[in-house]
Design brief:
Elements: H1 23-39, H2 44-50, H3 56-66, H4 83-96, H5 98-118, H6 121-132, E1 138-141, E2 157-161, E3 164-175, E4 182-189, E5 192-199, E6 205-206, E7 221-232, E8 236-241, H7 244-278, E9 280-281, E10 284-285, H8 290-318, H9 324-349, H10 360-372, H11 377-389
Parallel strand pairs: 1-4
Antiparallel strand pairs: 2-3, 3-7, 4-5, 5-8, 6-7, 9-10
């Protein structure tokens, strides 16, 4: 039996998950964590309270310089990072705020990924370098006012007119919409659902911002209005036909959420752990009471199980073996558990848990949106149900 001394127990990494990371993994994680600490954490409570992200364009350029935009893609100014490295970046960004991770996810995993995977070489050369640098912000137009979980029923339509396409319709709940320089828009055509690269300065295109949100307040969310937007033939994404295109983009974005949600959960767990050690009641820190320790233990177990799950899915993605059903597994579990960790942290912190002086309530309300977008709980349950039984319960 080995007599080597065991490493000390780390309350913030109780399973020693850091041992799974390479030096490059840690360097990327630490760089993103430091950027978020310097540029987001000092201001995010104020942005959240005001319901705006006033420096989004500055942040996008800084994230581009950091290599975080489209970082999982190859070429065209993208970093070519591994799936695990991209996941670690998402975790650190959402540890600051879900709105910041959403900015990066929509830019890289939806808009840039769609152009990279389904676009022409001319489209890639035109858009991806500027999007990777953050000079151009992108958005992804799939969800509509009456069609969220069932995108096949979308009403946005594109018709041919000579050599052009003419797009008409509306999209809803679009992250980055009103600050985007380009939108990837999905529409019904006589050939099925197709994707289009729509410059934001196209006549007939507008993106009014959605106000009065109580979640993801430090984020730009918009409606897209397409009023007979005329596009040249080469605006069509040539390799995307049918729902396969947008659904593969969503699967890529959901993978980032598997990691990101654990970042929000980690912040809330650590806030509760620190608070419990400092807060005294009945003559001693509340961390010394059994019920508080039970909450902290349960939170730690679910948090680090979720991080291990994210790592496992990342390794599968890097090996080219990650199935969409497995992404649904991760999204369903990790976001649901992250919300429960936030709620438990709030109870540890009592009334202080609802104050913006602490991050817990901000993360809890943000995660209510994360729970819904990129597939609701019910949709992911049905994806897994179909995979487990072979029977389709969607219809």
């Amino acid at each position: 039996m080995s007599t080597r001394a065991l490493p000390p127990f780390d309350p913030r990494d109780p399973l020693g998950i850091d041992d799974l990371l390479s030096d490059e993994d840690r360097a990327i994680r630490d760089a993103v964590r430091q950027w978020a600490a310097d540029r987001v954490l000092p201001h995010v409570a104020e942005w959240y309270e005001r319901g705006e992200l006033p420096v989004i364009r500055e942040l996008a350029r800084e994230l581009g310089a950091l290599g975080a935009l489209g970082m999982q893609l190859d070429g065209y100014g993208c970093a070519g990072a591994t799936a695990v490295q991209y996941g670690l970046a998402c975790l650190e960004l959402e540890a600051a705020d879900s709105g910041i991770r959403s900015l990066v996810s929509v830019q890289g995993s939806l808009a840039m990924y769609a152009i990279h995977r389904f676009g022409s070489e001319e489209q890639r050369q035109r858009w991806l370098p500027e999007m990777a640098s953050g000079q151009v912000i992108g958005c992804f137009g799939l969800t509509e006012p009456d069609h969220g979980s069932d995108p096949s029923g979308m009403r946005t339509h594109a018709r041919r007119d000579g050599g052009d396409w003419v797009l008409t319709g509306r999209k809803m709940w679009i992250t980055n919409g009103s600050v985007a320089g380009v939108a990837v828009v999905w529409a019904q055509t006589d050939e099925g659902i197709r994707g289009f690269v729509v410059p934001a300065d196209s006549p007939g295109f507008s993106a009014p911002e959605i106000r009065h949100k109580w979640s993801l307040r430090a984020s730009v969310t918009s409606e897209l209005v397409l009023d007979d937007v005329r596009l040249p033939a080469d605006a069509l994404l040539p390799e995307a036909i049918g729902l396969r295109g947008p659904l593969s983009c969503l699967s890529h974005a959901r993978y980032g959420i598997v990691w990101g949600s654990m970042g929000a959960a980690r912040t809330c767990f650590e806030a509760a752990l620190d608070y419990a050690g400092a807060r005294e009641q009945f003559g001693r820190p509340i961390a010394g009471f059994q019920l508080t320790q039970a909450k902290l233990a349960d939170m730690a177990v679910e948090l680090h199980k979720g991080i291990l799950l994210a790592h496992h899915l990342g390794r599968r993605m890097d090996a080219g073996r990650l199935r969409p059903e497995q992404v649904s597994f991760g999204k369903l579990n990790n976001v649901r558990e992250a919300i429960e960790i936030c709620r438990a942290a709030r109870t540890v912190m009592g009334a202080n848990g609802i104050s913006l002086e602490y991050p817990v309530m901000r993360h809890a309300t943000n995660l209510e949106s994360v729970l819904t977008y990129e597939g609701t709980v019910e949709m992911h349950q049905l994806v897994l149900g179909k995979a487990l039984t072979g029977l389709d319960a969607f219809r």
